[in-house]
Amino acid sequence: MRVLIVEDHEELALTVATGLRREGMAVDVALDGHAALDRASANHYDVVVLDRDLPGLHGDEVCRSLVGAGHPARVLMLTAAGTIDDRVTGLGIGADDYLPKPFAFAELVARIRALVRRAGPVLPPVLVRGGLRLDPATRIATRDGRRLPLSPKEFAVLELLLAAGGAVVSAEQLLERCWDEFADPFTQTVKVTVSRLRRKLGDPPLIETVPQAGYRI
Questions:
Q1: Where among 92, 119, 146 does a domain terminate?
Q2: How far apart are alpha carbons 199 and 74 in whole angstroms?
Q3: The pairing of beta strand 140-143 with beta strand 146-147
Q4: How many CB atoms lie within 10 A of CB 176?
Q5: Coil, strand, or helix at residue 97?
Q6: How many C-beta neighbours within 10 Å does residue 173 have?
């Protein structure tokens, strides 16, 4: 999944982004509301983690703009003000969830994953295909009972391919959903990652290359 963190406290934003990347997410960071809207107009995000109390363009306005533009991302609003009225206001302007500061990082991760599950087609909690089993919650993937030592990017690619249910996923889709905005679209990043993933999955081969289209399992 791809997440945009909108937080003017740079140290907090980078700390949260680092933690989410360790959870296998592709994460971009915006330090103000205008930058957030610029990134959202250029990229597909599954979730926007939005600090409500932004200087300049307030988080409420960012949320209204995203909702008004029909952006598909779910909005998880953060704020130091945690009263019921604050939560009602935040949800009333279009936020999908609300988390008061300070928050436990594990809860943030759980809420992001819950929002993504609600936004897309209903998927089982554990993805299974043949002898391949992937559990997004525990970040464990196995084949025929053998645990696979996957990097975060390899796990993300495998999860996206399994979630497609046999449909072809293009290299462009993989790059957009599994990497952040700094990924070079002209590199062989996706091809190299898929190649490493194939080696770790072992035989018989599971990932099929569909010429001129992409990959599928």
A1: 119
A2: 35
A3: antiparallel
A4: 17
A5: strand
A6: 16
